[in-house]
Fold:
Amino acid sequence: MSQRHILLVSPVFQGYYRGIAAALEELGYRVTTHVYDRPASFAGRLKNKALHELPEWLRPEGFAQRVTQEALAVYREVRPDAVITVKGDQLGDDWWFALEADKTPRAVWMYDELRRMRFSDEQWAHMGPVCTYSSEDVATLRERGIDATHVPLGFDTHQQIVPSERVDALTFIGARYPNRERLLQEIHGMGCPVRAYGRQWSRHPIDIARTRAFADPGVPAGRDVERGAAYGVMAASLATLNIHGDQDGFTMRTFEACGVGAVQIVDRPEVSAYFEPGKEILVATDAAEMAEAAERVRTDAKLAQNIRAAGRRRALAEHTLTHRLGSVVARIASI
Structure:
């Protein structure tokens, strides 16, 4: 029997589409990938980035229609056995209605919350099974009569890790939000070595000009790092922090940090659903606890070594993108 053919339609979002496609291939599917928000030319990419960052009401009329028609053209050309749409909130009604009209086996995988996306109630009704990392959104969608399943995020084992020099500090890689800035400042003020990475933290003149983040964050900082380099930095750190915002699901970082063999200090006790606190991961809910956890790791090399090894084993055994895409495919009928 020939391989079943899946069309993966995804945003460019940090290149995760590559790991998702590789995971589907690992599961035995033939995959065609369409990245719906990445124009081919450099000028087109710049324009597209600017358009995506505008508030919806400022975007030129026809923006969503163009993106939708491009996705539909690929769909009609490849004639897949099934479609997996990742997020897809830039795609218009025609996309969802066409898949439904053709009775195409399909599923949607969400790494963001409903409140941050631009779907209408009518679109939800036509999507088919929805898989989301948000347990709260699963409940909301089911109340609306929509087939929704909780599928967490995961570790991309297909992403090459860029080795890093040892980082003798508690690292944080991510956006500079007020709660994160406050925590890192407090930890740094306690004498714990801290280093943040990202363009909003960076004091490089180019990054300051790009972000207009003129105020110094008050902690040592590095520039943006690509995902492979971020993996290397986490693995080479004394420990790495995972500080959530208002998400109700666990971020990719939760599974990535353990997956690369880092000592992860996370701010949510509910992580016990995925990793065993104290053995595979460390939990700390405020600055004092985070500094204390970092000190324990610094002074107990055996503890650090055991956490690194155990967390990585658990991530590879249960929490990879291949595990997650297996759950997504299981929601697709007739494939």
